[in-house]
Each structure stands twice: as C-alpha cells, then as structure tokens.
Amino acid sequence: MASAMTVDGGIVRIDRPMPWFGRLLSLPLLAAGFYLLWNVALGLRQDFSGFGRLADDLVPVLVFSGLGLLVGIPGLILLTFRSFVVLNAALRQIVVTRQFGPLNFRKSRDLADYHFISITDDYDPELTTYDVNLCGNKGTEPITLQSFTKREDANKLASELGRVLKLPARDYVGTEPDAD
C-alpha cells in the first residue's frame, strides 16, 4: 500500500503497477525480436566485409528486419509500460498518464468534476478485487485509481486520498449498482 500513493505537498501521485506476468510475457517477444535483428546484423556484416552481395540478400534483410521490429516493439511496450495518476489539489486538475518507454500519453481532467471516492468490488466470489475510483456526477467517466485484493488496503487508500483532497469516501462493496 505504501507504494501506491505518494503525497508531496498538494500533489498526489498514484502508481498503477503493471502485473508481473505482463513483464514476463515481454521476454519471449524481446528475445525473438533480438534474434531476428541479430541475424540481420550478421548478414549485413557478411555482405559489407566482401563475403556476400547485398543485392542477393536484400529481400531476406528486409523481411527479417520487419519481422524483428514487428515482434520486438510489442515486447518493448510490455516491458516499459507504466501508468499513473497525478492529482494536483492546488491547480485542481487530474493528469492520467500511460507511458511506453519514451512515449507519454496524457489525459488531463478537471478535479472539480469529481465529488467523491468510491470503493467497489467486482462480484467475483473466488477472487474479489476492490477498486478505488474517483467519481463525479452522471456523465463523468470515473477514474480507477488502484485495485486491491484486500478490502482494508482499499479503505486505507480511499481514506488517505479523501483526507488529502477533502472528498468523501463511499464504500459500495456488496451493494447493487444504482440506476444513476
């Protein structure tokens, strides 16, 4: 729970970690992409050192380069994926960031549109997860801040966040969704 939220003055940062199996799935993709691109490099070295002709190897070099990039780039995205939410109480804004290596995709929202923090569950009897959401009026898309497997951790994050942002925390675990 300690790594989920950091508070620095009026700025709250909530990290949404990538599951470990997502990072594990990136390793075969990276290995396959590296293998294909390594073979391209070996072929080009042979062509430029005088043991082959580039004209004869141009199609395999292009195909292996394309396949290496096609397989390696998704592996790199899975390995470097990060997602976090920054809540700035002073500027009254929310920035949701999804980061893939050097690429950042940011979505900015107004904190005034959100009025309470909700804790919900997914109604799965075997493995229940408790989501902490920032919610607003009807028509405002809720922001899922963090998911927990223990209800106490979700309540702790919601209460700390509610204290910092001065928003009420509502526990909707075990209730049916409202029509509103």
List the helices and strands and how they pair.
Blueprint: E1 5-8, E2 11-16, H1 20-48, H2 54-80, E3 81-88, E4 93-100, E5 103-110, E6 114-121, E7 130-136, E8 143-148, H3 151-165, E9 169-171
Parallel strand pairs: 6-9
Antiparallel strand pairs: 1-2, 2-3, 3-4, 4-5, 6-7, 7-8
Characterization of the model:
With 180 residues, the protein is an alpha+beta fold. It is built from 3 helices and 9 strands; from the N terminus they run ββααββββββαβ. It has helices at 20-48, 54-80, 151-165; strands spanning 5-8, 11-16, 81-88, 93-100, 103-110, 114-121, 130-136, 143-148, 169-171. A 5-stranded antiparallel sheet has the order 1-2-3-4-5. Helix 1 packs antiparallel against helix 2. It is elongated and about 75 Å long.
Assembly form of the protein? single chain
Ends distance: 31 Å
What is the β-strand count?
9
* Helix/strand structural class: alpha+beta
Number of helices: 3
Radius of gyration: 23 Å
Strand content range: 25-35%
Low-pLDDT stretches: none
pLDDT average, as an integer? Answer: 86
Query: Which percent bin holds the helix content?
Result: 25-40%
Biggest sheet record: 5 strands, antiparallel
Question: What is the spatial order of strands in the main beta sheet?
Answer: 1-2-3-4-5
Reading the helices and strands in chain order gives EEHHEEEEEEHE
Shape annotation:
elongated
